[in-house]
Sequence to fold (790 residues):
Amino acid sequence: MSALDLINPTSGLYRKREPVFPRVVKGRFRQLKWAVMILCLAVYYITPWIRWDRGAYAPDQAVLVDLANRRFFMFNIEIWPQEFYYVAGLLIMAGIGLFLVTSAVGRAWCGYACPQTVWTDLFQHVERWIDGDRNAQLKLNNAPWTAAKLGRRLTKWSIWLVIAMATGGAWIFYFADAPTLASQFVAGDATFVAYATVGVLTATTFIFGGFMREQVCIYMCPWPRIQTAMLDEKSLIVTYRDWRGEPRTQGVKKAAAAGEKVGDCIDCNACVSVCPTGVDIRQGPQLGCINCALCIDACDEVMGKLNRPRGLIDYLNLDDEKHERAGGAARPILKTLLRPRTLIYFAIWCSIGLAMLFTLGERARLTIDSAQDRNPVVVTMSDGQVRNGWTIKMRNMEARPRSVELTMAGLPQGRMWTDAMDRKDAARSVRLNLAADATTRLHLYVAAPAGPAGETPFALIARPLDATPGTKDGREAARDIKFIRQ
Amino acid sequence: MTDHSKRVDEATGTNLVGHEWDGIEELDTPLPRWWVYIFAATVVFAAGYVVAYPSFPDVAGGTGWSSRGQLEEALQAQTAARAPVATAIAATPIDQLAANPQLMRSAIEGGRAAFKVNCVQCHGSGAAGSKGYPNLNDDDWLWGGDITSIHTTLVHGIRSPGVDETRFSQMPAFADILSKGQISALVNHVRAISGQGKPSAAGAQLFAENCASCHGPEGKGMREQGAPNLTDGIWLYGGDRASLTQTISKARYGVMPHWATRLDAATVKMLAAYVHSLGGGEANPTPAPADTAAAASGESNVSS
Ligand code: SF4
Ligand code: SF4
Fold:
């Protein structure tokens, strides 16, 4: 072997790509794919443009990941970085959801909802619209480069590029106010990172959806390996019923007349020609098959014309396959979907979701945090009293300014004041105005008469002064701290 | 290539490499061509990278880049970015600093850093001081606790040798002037006025004759002289009998260096702002107009 083998096209060291020109197909799964595709694209493109009134102190974009201000908005939910566990919860739900979907319907993500699948599908429709269906595409592909071919290619690529730019463009609107950013972007006033993001996503969409396609699924993506490893004997897999289809024959009548045994497959190749990844499912389940079920639609159509029952290619699990091979009748799919494993996954998934919703409703929107001065802990004042200090952080997580009273519970002889006050105004409570949706930091001092060394626990209580009676508004925030004497 | 490669995996029709682990054999699956091209491209990139960037010890890369140089640049950029703030602080009179809350905040933070370098040796990392070195967190000040006075102390130092404007005072060593018994009576009086003992008529008499000129008739001290208040709860050298006897007999002579010639004007102001912010800082004797005083309370909108 020499290094030259690497660039020698006839070397067995690498595989030349087989071009795939999937034929258009109609049927129930194609319809489902349409629905999922429209839903996914609509959600992706439209979401950042939904407005949501949060008042004067918060953005009015329904879904916004505000990285600069470290806030995440989703309709009436606002998440602070301290509440990141909600995102962790969502990730756990996504993980369990993956178990659930995979154990029930196998690689459904790959076949219907994966962005690679959705955008490749979209690009292929554009391709058919410009170049025609499979045969026309094949012919054009093999044709010499004439002006007409170039024209078609440029048209197709331009449309792809527009879609790709719209895709890359939509992404950035999740991270800033969409209308503002859109006008800035067009005017050339957006930040470099905005243009870079759009550039990278446009390029990846254009290349992955237009040119890489099934190569992404087969060679680049780890997902097929992960999901395939998670399948069990009850997961649905697109399966060719070879026990019914074989021996396949093109001349059915002739073979039948000759007394040969004939299967249902007429070897029409429809299943292969519609496959977006160029797989022949009749060779058995394989990594390249993204389980999009388009071959099911194609074969069903053929079977319909032949007046044979549908489902020569069908969603089937390994258990049922064994059962049918042994001569058993086909079993209903619902039984596969509803079984303890999927039900338990579903129950876990739902309970996490419900628990998160409940805590979201109950979470505190006014919190107080403190860090006691450690160096020095105790300061003797000239009047002989001792002073402790704390750095206080008050979080007002609501989109409105609040007015609160900070009070001491316990340490009856203690008096407190803040770094913005004079000690002679020290009292048992101080009033604070908290800015909307912000953390207010202050230094708090408490002085009390000297005494024996030790710790006196007491509490700081923040009581809203602007609460509407009878609502959650009035919920207090409290913090247990210790007054230390040395 | 070994003979193994001739063997073919039945299920896939692919050649076997000949490597086997527990009966699992590796297939000789060819890479897609684009992947091979990317691999080749990375090799080409690596060659360029080796030339352009430092790849061997002591050999500079073609671009001249080095991580040390990058750090240098980052530090310079940082200094340059801070320069306007330092200039603004240097240009602001010390008593006007608080009128600009943002500048004041920068000054306090800058002072915090400068304190760690220049002041902790005597005053401690938390500015809590120790015997002979004042605690800067409390509200007791020998020479004044408003930001202007603190700044003056920092600029000229205290008893700093060779500095004309340094803060200066000298308590006499009374061992040469008074008898042991008289000193003991004085100690009694000082402990009495600070609430630590019973009054002593002889001590009070001696105090009025010898000490009141600096410490005041009531012993409340005098900041122009740096004479401490003897009636409060804070003692720089200790308020017990032994320490007081020592102080009166031998006197004390605490020295703080003057910082005007060691640090730039902005840093000294920052240090003053930091020390003033530690919890005992006093308002300026000539109060600023009411609105600036409100602004001085900083961004934290505490209404009291
Ligand atoms: S579409 Fe159906 S009948 Fe046609 S080749 Fe495929 S499996 Fe056979
Ligand atoms: S084999 Fe069938 S299910 Fe699999 S990717 Fe091809 S068309 Fe889709």
